[in-house]
Amino acid sequence: MLSTYQYPKFEYVRPPEQSGADKKRYPVVVVGAGPVGLAAAIELAQSGVPVVLLDDDDTVSVGSRGVCYAKRTLEVLDRLGLGEPCMDKGVSWNVGRTFFREEEVYNFNLLPQADHKRPGMINLQQYYLEEFEVKRAQELPNLDLRFKNKVLSVTPQGDGATLQVETPDGVYTLETDWLVVADGARSGIRRLMNLDIEGKIFKDRFLIADVVMKADFPHERWFWFDPPFHPGQSVLLHRQADNVYRIDFQLGWDADPEEEKKPEKVIPRIKAMLGDEREFELEWVSVYTFQCRRMNAFTHGHVLFAGDAAHQVSPFGARGANSGIQDTDNLCWKLKLVIEGKAPPELLDTYSEERVFAAEENLMNSTRSTDFITPKSKTSLMFRNATLSLAREHAFARALVNSGRLSVPAILTASSLNTPDSDVFAGDMVPGAPMDDAPMHVDGRESWLLDNVGKCFMVLLYVTDPAHVSTGLLNDFEVLASAPLAPELVLVSGKPGVAPQGIRLLEDRAGRFAERFDARQGTAYLIRPDQHVAARWRSLDATQVGTALARATCKLQ
């Protein structure tokens, strides 16, 4: 039990398959009601796809576990209706500081630009995120959330999968067209299907101590190399909700996990760090090792893997839950289009293509961070310590300091769904990039760019005067609008005005969109449902848009 949190117990409901209902085949079944599985089920359900979500437990995760949620993840959670509760409860931060022994040698700011809705990061215990997700899931009429439903077997088929599921009322059979697997790092379904996961297991141990205390520490991330209170090792400090502080102590591979979790071993470490005068209470303690591994492919016929079931990284850099939630953001719009017959099944192959690339990037950064934090040879240790010493005075050395390269979204520049630039652009909004945010005015109200895009394909057209848009252009778009997969045309303008009837207008009064997207009169962007750039042009041509849209949905012949 935790002193700051009361674990909910979710009700088990006898499944209809065990209550005499007619046998039913479901479009999608998701396995695993952690942050990733819940995010997938919510996104599918709120986009109109009926989904069943199975979990073998009846509460949220035990212990704070995942802590840090990055700006991009918060933007995804906004579209799931979860951004505000997470922000209200979490601890926002942008600045991280790195210390070597007793001196600060390096600091960074995750959000150096102004005018973004969300901060670089929030800290929030995983059980709160899961509780918010469960509440949202229960609001959706086409999401059947089933607790105490344990998957015993999976039989993949050419057009779906059959599951044997165990409940307190016995075993029943469940059939689905598509199975999304998000059952965690020890994925039972991955093992049932005899699928490999390959990578590196690191021989080191870390102690997690969640400590309740009142302290006036700033909302920042602090990381120490070789501090006087824990010599020869590293320590990480994060503040979470409810005055809970996460402290990670490096222990070394030879440490006995069971011994190190005992209060008589943990409390002296914390007192050495905080001082004898600081009052605190132990909330949760665990010892962990970590690994950097991934599956070779995330799609296996009609079985799709996401989150820790597909890839695992070390905790340095907050890349676990963040990358998992971004998996679902990539997967769900594609799965919806395939289910609706608006895109071929090959579109789901690009889920694996794009998210394997992102996982590989995360694994590379996570491995480099771990190698720097836990050097395994005298030479590596000498290099690390020399780098930290030089970083006090020299910028080149600060760039080499690696206390965990923090989670950033993958820029999918090599994706087969992109249309390469045919015009010259400056800035970062290349095809494949996730969109930058920007303040907007919509119908006279202050808003944000990312709150007004996503969930479907859109064309953002930048104009100096929204009242003077070419009639020919609008007529061309009428042809696109009659297609099965029609993009929405949205105008962006630097000044107020009135758009043609039926077309939305976003007013870029601060000029941030023009700046960040290198936009001028006639510039157009094709945006994917997951807010990634698919294509961009200096002048808009409906035929080019149609071709780019076909490419972005694997329909280009």
Instruction: State mean pLDDT (0 to 100 scale).
Output: 93
CATH architecture of the largest domain: 3-Layer(bba) Sandwich
CATH class of the largest domain: Alpha Beta
Q: Looking at this structure, what is the CATH superfamily of the largest domain?
A: FAD/NAD(P)-binding domain
What's the tally of helices?
A: 14
Q: Got a strand count?
A: 26
Radius of gyration: 25 Å
Number of domains: 4
What shape does the CA trace take?
Answer: globular
Strand coverage percent = 25-35%
The amount of helix comes to: 25-40%
Major sheet characteristics: 8 strands, mixed
In short:
The protein has 557 residues and is of the alpha/beta class.
What does this molecule look like?
With 557 residues, the chain is an alpha/beta fold. It folds into four domains: 224 residues, FAD/NAD(P)-binding domain; 92 residues, D-Amino Acid Oxidase, Chain A, domain 2, CATH 3.30.9.10; 30 residues, no CATH class; 114 residues, 3-Layer(aba) Sandwich (Glutaredoxin), CATH 3.40.30.120. Strands 1, 2, 8, 9, 10, 11, 17 and 18 form an eight-stranded mixed sheet that branches. The protein has an eight-stranded mixed sheet with strand order 6-5-13-14-15-12-16-19. Helix 1 packs parallel to helix 4 and helix 2 crosses helix 3. The radius of gyration is 25 Å and the shape is globular. 45% of the residues are buried.
Any chance you could write out the topology, listing elements then pairs?
Layout: E1 25-31, H1 35-46, E2 51-54, E3 68-70, H2 71-79, H3 83-89, E4 91-93, E5 95-100, E6 103-109, E7 121-123, H4 126-138, E8 143-146, E9 150-157, E10 160-167, E11 170-181, H5 188-192, E12 198-212, E13 221-225, E14 234-239, E15 244-250, H6 257-260, H7 263-274, E16 281-294, E17 299-300, E18 303-305, E19 311-312, H8 320-339, H9 349-373, H10 378-391, H11 395-398, E20 439-442, E21 445-448, E22 458-463, H12 471-481, E23 488-493, E24 504-507, H13 512-516, E25 524-527, E26 533-537, H14 542-552
Parallel strand pairs: 1-2, 1-11, 2-8, 5-13, 11-18, 22-23, 23-24
Antiparallel strand pairs: 3-7, 4-7, 5-6, 9-10, 10-11, 12-15, 12-16, 13-14, 14-15, 16-19, 17-18, 20-21, 22-25, 25-26
Helix pairs in contact: 1-4, 1-8, 2-3, 8-9
